[in-house]
What does this fold into?
Amino acid sequence: MRLLLPLLRMGVYEDLRYRLRSSQLSEYICLVAIATAPEETVNHSTLVGTVEVTLRSNSPFQLRSLPYPYLSNLAVRTEARRQGVAQRLLTACERMASERGFHELYLHVLENNHAAMQLYFKAGYELRQADTFWWCCLFNQPRKLLLYKRLAFPHPSN
It folds into this structure.
């Protein structure tokens, strides 16, 4: 596994570089959570969490498909978990989506990721759709659940 780690890192780096170069700023946002102690400088801060929000459309074949914000890659450093980092990142994503005029936010979670499901349901997300049972059995994978949340933040023009 140690031999593959540099290759995996390079793949993640290239993916992020591609996203930042090819995506318009209005269609892609990556938020980070950084922990700093009061006596530390910015150079000694620690990255403790990240999340990405992109605009997606329902179907590329529908001409009138409206884009919607989609949350992905929410990750929190192991030693920073259960301290509210993920909840604060979710809240920031929800606020940003609402400020841009969106009324819902979507994400996927695997049904066997119980900690993530607990976080999302506690934050007010609801099940919108689940992969079909046959698809999961065919590939021996857990179902992917599409969750959504109606955003309650007031629009900035109000």
Notes: The chain has a mean pLDDT of 81. Strands lie at 28-35, 46-57, 67-76, 104-110, 126-130, 144-150. The CA atoms of residues 49 and 85 lie 7 Å apart.
